[in-house]
Design goal:
Distance between the termini: 70 Å
CATH superfamily of the largest domain: Bira Bifunctional Protein, Domain 2
Number of helices: 20
Number of strands: 34
Radius of gyration: 30 Å
Shape: globular
Helix content: 25-40%
């Protein structure tokens, strides 16, 4: 009788297989559809190639191409094929790294003779990639000693550096490196896994060429990076490309200029925007609503300066941890000053100004505080990555007994306010204790348990990022999905186990002894600038009526309708609405088109019949036909009801 192995499947069942069975054999044994969709397997939690023999007693799951894990395998394999294509077209090219990234992949290259890719080269590279796919070359895994790896990749300086790093990390004894060799003779250093053959690929698109420093270090060689995307099917690829096309239309930088919201003057410098009147009004509405909600939730408002002496940031640790990202110091009257990179040290100073009783806790401090971080010019991205960041920053000081309740109510508050702005799809990530950390095991356990309980109480899906917390704090990161399905990280809740000690914070407990308070950091929007940019793209510039800088335009048909148009506008303004009158200096059709391009929620056309009856013709944004003969009072009531309904999610 032939020897066999037994493996466990995710549903708890077991499958008996031949002792030489691979992941591909397991998929085929389960069914032909799974065998066709499979791209890898996980064995006891680790991803393996389909061609690897399975160990007896392992817990195995089949990874299909339409999952997040499967797409990573497809994309990384496609990156290898792209590198192979580049080396065919540019013999002697050096290839550095080519990871899978969100929705795609990239690979970094150094071309011989100082040659440079052009956008026109992308088509040539794609053609070469499709030829490699058609050759159906197998991906074959190899393992080598470090010395063998250095010999194999002797003509690839970036691979040599990676291998030397492996060798040094091993300490005594020579390490092992893995590589994948294609049937076409191409070999790449890689942990894997990969699809079985290049023929399993093909649904890809190369997108752009960019510059990138080796290992992200501006003092190292500058390489050329090609970005691409790859998917499990033609339909999935086309759907993604349509999303990208829609995202381009929604680009907040483009819409910011078209809608006259903001710009970045070169006289000020990159990463520091100015908001125009319409953008400034939207920002004011955002901030006013947030302030009102914070006041209702029991927060105290504070204001802190933009500068502080270096001693403050020495105590907080920012000069030790973040100095490279801070603006340069200023010397004045014998003291060194820095623009603040964070608001928390100043909020702590407010708490420490006097001794508090436990009866006063929790203390919730809130500020729209602008901080400054010198982001490198290469990473600046409109409002999404700026150097002047206005955080809706809150710091809560509480007892250990209050911690879980505060976090639960805080997360509920965060989600409620985000819903007001039309963001309703949430995911969260709990980042837990890293290997190197400060604070006791008991403190970390209490903080992580409280954060986990808050997410479970909120009922939102979450994942645990083991070991990815800061060395001084576990945290929750809240992610939202916008109107076209893109994922954005916005709010953060962090339990700080470091600052209370560094600033020797204390309160008087019920036992009349001093105790260390627990400290929660919380940024709800993340930053006003970035959240503003996200909203522009989420709504494609068509802000909801309550947030639109101009809610209504009144368009008189002729000059002799102007007086009535202004009476309508004055009445609506008296009820608190934002209204403009657009004079009849051109045809109504042209003015309606301009109003639609400006994404005005309501365009009211008034003519002879409206003047006589006290009505308006209502052109609603997105409606196919106008509503004629609507009484002004009825329209005002409709408008008020719409605004109230949109703000309803923020109700307690």
């Amino acid at each position: 009788m032939a020897a066999s192995i037994t493996v466990s499947l995710p549903d708890g069942s077991q499958r008996e297989l031949d002792e030489r069975a691979t992941g591909a054999d397991l998929a085929a044994a389960i069914g032909p559809r799974l065998a066709k969709a499979a791209v890898a397997v996980t064995v006891d939690g680790t991803e393996w190639d389909l061609s690897s023999p399975l160990p007896d007693g392992a817990a195995v799951s089949v990874v299909t191409g339409n999952t997040a894990e499967g797409r990573r395998v497809l994309r990384h394999s496609t990156a290898h094929v792209m590198a192979q294509a580049v080396t065919r077209l540019w013999p002697g090219a050096s290839y550095a790294i080519g990871p899978a990234i969100e929705d795609g992949f990239y690979y970094d290259f150094d071309l011989p003779g100082g040659a440079h890719f052009s956008e026109d080269d992308l088509g040539r590279i794609e053609d070469a990639m499709r030829a490699i796919v058609a050759e159906d070359q197998p991906f074959v895994r190899e393992e080598h000693s470090v010395s063998e790896g250095l010999q194999i990749f002797g003509d690839q300086p970036f691979k040599v550096e990676i291998i030397q790093g492996v060798d040094s990390s091993e300490g005594a004894g020579e390490g092992v490196v893995s590589a994948y060799r294609n049937g076409g003779g191409f070999v790449d250093l890689c942990r894997g896994p990969h699809v079985p053959t290049t023929g399993r690929l093909g649904h890809f698109k190369l997108q752009k060429v960019a510059a990138a420093y080796w290992r992200g270090d501006e003092h190292r060689p500058q390489l050329q990076r090609i970005y691409g995307t790859a998917w499990e099917s033609k339909a999935a690829l086309e759907e993604h490309l349509q999303r990208l096309e829609e995202a381009e239309k929604r680009d907040h930088r483009k819409l910011g200029a078209e809608l006259d919201l903001f710009h970045f003057p070169p006289e000020i410098g990159g990463g520091l925007p100015v908001f125009h009147p319409k953008g400034g009004l939207i920002r004011k509405l955002m901030e006013d609503h947030s302030r009102a909600e914070h006041e209702r939730a029991g927060y105290d408002f504070v204001y802190t300066p933009h500068l502080a002496k270096s001693t403050l940031f020495e105590i907080s640790g920012h000069l030790g941890w973040y100095k490279d990202g801070m603006y340069p110091p200023m010397e004045m009257e014998g003291a060194t000053y820095y623009p603040k990179p964070m608001n928390c040290p100043m909020h702590i100073l407010i708490f420490n100004d006097r001794l508090h009783s436990y009866r006063e806790l929790p203390i919730r401090l809130f500020e729209f505080g602008t901080v400054y971080r010198f982001e490198r010019s290469g990473v600046l991205n409109g409002l999404l990555r700026v150097r002047g960041i206005t955080q809706d920053d809150s710091h809560i000081f509480c007892t250990q007994e209050q911690l879980a309740g505060e976090l639960a109510s805080l997360l509920a508050f965060v989600l409620r306010l985000l819903r007001t702005f039309g963001l309703t799809e949430f995911e969260a990530e709990l980042a837990t204790r890293p290997d190197k950390s400060v604070g006791s095991e008991e403190e970390w356990a209490a903080a992580e348990a409280a954060l986990r309980a808050a997410m479970e109480a909120a009922g939102i899906p979450y994942v645990v990022a083991d070991g990815e917390g800061a060395f001084y704090a576990p945290k929750i990161d809240v992610h939202v999905r916008d109107a076209i399905g893109r994922r954005w990280q916005v709010s953060t809740l962090q339990v700080d186990l470091q600052m209370p000690q560094r600033f020797d914070m204390s309160y008087v407990g019920s036992d009349n002894e001093r105790h260390r308070p627990w400290m929660i950091h919380r940024a709800l929007f993340g930053s006003i600038e970035r959240f503003f940019g996200i909203l522009v793209e989420h709504y494609a510039g068509a802000f909801p009526t309550w947030l639109a800088p101009v809610q209504v335009q009144v368009l008189p048909v002729r000059d002799d309708h102007h007086a009535y148009a202004f009476r309508v506008a004055d009445r609506l303004r008296a009820e608190g609405f934002r209204v403009e009158v657009v004079p009849a200096d051109e045809g109504v059709g042209a003015r309606v088109r301009r109003g639609r391009l400006a994404k005005i929620p309501y365009l009211l056309v008034v003519g002879d019949e409206d003047v006589e009856a006290g009505t308006v013709g209502v052109n609603s944004r997105g409606a196919q036909r106008p509503d004629k003969g609507v009484a002004v009072a009825d329209f005002a009531s409709q408008l008020a009801a719409e605004v109230v309904a949109h703000l309803a999610p923020a109700a307690p």
